[in-house]
C-alpha cells in the first residue's frame, strides 16, 4: 500500500502537460460538494422543522396524560384526583417528571360586537408555564380568577386588547353561568389550530365553577419526558397505575395516552418529511456519483501510458486500481471539504439571523429552523466516503483491460 500511496500523492489531478486544467476534475469536485452541502442543509432543515413543530405540539399537549378510563373529551370526562397513590405511581414510573392536574372548559367569549367559542385551560401546582410565557406578545398570564389570556387570533376576532373586558358564558350542568373576565395577556404560538381554540385562565376560576378541589381536574399531565422515551414511559406508567388499581390503592381505573396519540395528525405529517430527505439523498447521490465515475474514467484515460509502464515493470492490476482509487479519493476529499464549508456556513447564517422566513399560517413557524449535531455531520461524511469508494470501483476496474504493449502507441 505504501507504493500506491507514494505514486498517488505525486500525481496531479490536472493533465501532466500543465497547459490547462481538466474540467472533469472541477465538475467532480463541484458535484460532490453540491451533494454534501444540499444533503447537510436538507437534514438540518428537516430535523429543525420536526423539532420545532414537536416542541409546539408538546407545549399544548403533555408528553403523557392520565385520564379516567372511558373519558374521551374534556367537557364530559369524569374528574380525576392526583392523590398520594397516584403521585407515587407516577414518580415510580417516571422519576423527575413534572406532574400537574389540568382543567379544561368550553366557553363562549362575548363582546358587544362579536363572540368566539374557545376552550379555557388551567393548570394546577407543578405546571411549568415556560411555553405559555414564551408565546406571550403582550401582558401576562392570568394570575387572578377574573383574568384570561387569549390568542392574537381570538383577540383580533373580538377586537379586544390587554386590559379590556369580555363576558364568558359557561354551560355547566345544563346551567348558564356568566363571568366578566379581564384580558391579562395576548399570545401567539403561530400554531393556528391550537391558537384559535385555546385560552388560559387561573385554576381557581374553573375549580370554583366546576366545584373541584385544588388537586382535582379533568386529566393529569406529565411533562418533561424526552420524545424518544415516551413510549417506554407510557408502558411503565400504565403498569404502575394498573398494579395500584388492582391492589385497591386507586379507586378508579385510569388510562394513559401520549402526545403521539393526541397529536397524531402532526406527527404523521412530520414523518412524511423523512421521505423528502430520502428522495433528495437519491437524487444527489446519482448526480455526484455520475460526475465522480466520469472523473475517474478521465483520470485513467489521461494516464494510459503511465498504466502501461507500471504494468511493464511488474505492477499488478490491484496495485494500479488502488492508485486511481487514492487519486479519486483526493477528488472526494476536496468535494467533502468544500461541501462541508458551504453547508455549515449556510446553516450557521440561518441559525443566527434567520434570513429565510416562512408563512406561519401554512408552516406554523416564522422562519426556517435548522438543527444538526456533529454526530449527524460525521455520519453524513462517512456515508459519502463509503458511497464514493463503492462507485469508484467501477471505473477503476478498467485498469485490468489495458494492455502494456498497446499503451506505448496511445496518444
SSE blueprint and pairings:
Layout: H1 2-10, H2 23-60, E1 64-68, E2 80-81, H3 84-93, E3 98-110, E4 115-123, H4 130-134, E5 136-139, E6 147-151, H5 152-158, E7 165-172, E8 175-187, H6 192-195, E9 198-201, H7 203-210, E10 216-217, E11 219-223, H8 230-247, E12 254-258, H9 259-262, H10 264-301, H11 304-312, H12 317-353, H13 360-363, H14 374-396, H15 404-407
List keywords for this structure.
411 residues, alpha+beta, 6-stranded mixed barrel, two-stranded antiparallel ribbon, 12 strands, 18% strand
Describe this structure in words.
With 411 residues, the protein is of the alpha+beta class. The chain has 15 helices and 12 strands. It has helices spanning 2-10, 23-60, 84-93, 130-134, 152-158, 192-195, 203-210, 230-247, 259-262, 264-301, 304-312, 317-353, 360-363, 374-396, 404-407, and strands at residues 64-68, 80-81, 98-110, 115-123, 136-139, 147-151, 165-172, 175-187, 198-201, 216-217, 219-223, 254-258. A 6-stranded mixed barrel has the order 3-4-9-6-8-7. The longest helix has 38 residues, at 23-60.
Distance between the termini: 29 Å
Mean pLDDT across residues = 88
**Biggest sheet architecture:** 6 strands, mixed, barrel
H/E order of the elements?
HHEEHEEHEEHEEHEHEEHEHHHHHHH
The percent range for helix content is: 40-55%
Strand content: 15-25%
State the low-pLDDT regions, or none: 72-76
Amino acid at each position: 500500500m505504501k507504493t500506491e500511496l507514494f505514486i498517488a500523492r505525486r500525481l496531479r489531478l490536472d493533465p501532466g502537460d500543465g497547459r490547462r486544467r481538466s474540467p472533469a476534475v472541477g465538475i467532480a469536485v463541484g458535484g460532490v460538494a453540491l451533494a454534501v452541502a444540499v444533503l447537510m442543509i436538507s437534514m438540518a432543515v428537516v430535523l429543525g422543522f420536526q423539532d420545532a413543530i414537536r416542541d409546539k405540539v408538546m407545549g399544548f399537549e403533555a408528553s403523557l396524560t392520565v385520564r379516567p378510563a372511558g373519558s374521551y373529551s374534556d367537557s364530559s370526562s369524569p374528574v380525576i384526583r392526583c392523590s398520594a397513590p397516584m403521585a407515587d405511581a407516577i414518580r415510580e414510573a417516571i422519576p423527575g417528571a413534572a406532574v400537574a392536574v389540568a382543567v379544561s372548559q368550553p366557553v363562549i367569549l362575548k363582546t358587544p360586537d362579536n363572540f368566539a367559542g374557545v376552550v379555557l385551560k388551567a393548570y394546577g401546582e407543578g405546571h411549568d408555564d415556560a411555553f405559555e410565557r414564551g408565546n406571550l406578545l403582550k401582558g401576562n398570564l392570568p394570575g387572578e380568577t377574573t383574568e384570561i389570556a387569549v390568542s392574537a387570533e381570538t383577540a383580533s376576532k373580538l377586537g379586544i386588547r390587554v386590559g379590556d373586558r369580555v363576558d364568558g358564558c359557561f354551560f355547566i350542568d345544563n346551567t348558564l353561568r356568566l363571568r366578566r373576565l379581564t384580558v391579562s395577556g395576548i399570545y401567539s404560538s403561530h400554531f393556528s389550530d391550537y391558537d384559535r381554540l385555546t385560552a388560559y385562565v387561573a385554576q381557581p376560576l374553573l375549580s370554583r365553577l366546576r366545584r373541584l378541589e385544588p388537586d382535582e381536574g379533568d386529566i393529569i399531565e406529565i411533562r418533561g419526558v424526552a420524545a424518544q422515551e415516551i413510549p417506554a414511559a407510557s408502558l411503565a406508567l400504565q403498569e404502575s397505575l394498573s398494579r395500584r388499581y388492582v391492589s385497591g390503592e386507586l379507586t378508579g381505573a385510569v388510562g394513559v395516552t401520549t402526545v403521539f396519540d393526541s397529536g397524531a395528525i402532526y406527527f404523521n405529517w412530520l414523518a412524511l418529511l423523512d421521505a423528502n430527505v430520502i428522495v433528495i439523498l437519491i437524487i444527489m447521490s446519482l448526480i455526484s456519483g455520475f460526475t465522480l465515475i466520469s472523473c475517474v474514467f478521465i483520470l485513467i484515460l489521461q494516464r494510459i501510458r503511465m498504466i502501461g509502464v507500471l504494468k511493464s515493470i511488474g505492477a499488478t492490476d490491484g496495485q494500479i486500481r488502488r492508485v486511481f482509487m487514492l487519486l479519486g479519493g483526493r477528488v472526494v476529499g476536496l468535494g467533502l471539504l468544500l461541501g462541508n464549508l458551504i453547508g455549515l456556513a449556510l446553516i450557521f447564517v440561518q441559525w443566527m439571523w434567520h434570513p429565510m422566513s416562512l408563512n406561519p399560517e401554512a408552516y406554523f413557524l416564522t422562519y426556517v429552523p435548522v438543527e444538526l449535531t456533529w454526530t449527524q455531520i460525521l455520519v453524513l461524511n462517512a456515508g459519502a466516503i463509503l458511497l464514493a469508494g463503492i462507485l469508484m470501483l467501477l471505473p477503476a476496474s478498467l485498469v485490468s483491460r489495458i494492455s502494456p504493449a498497446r499503451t506505448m502507441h496511445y496518444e
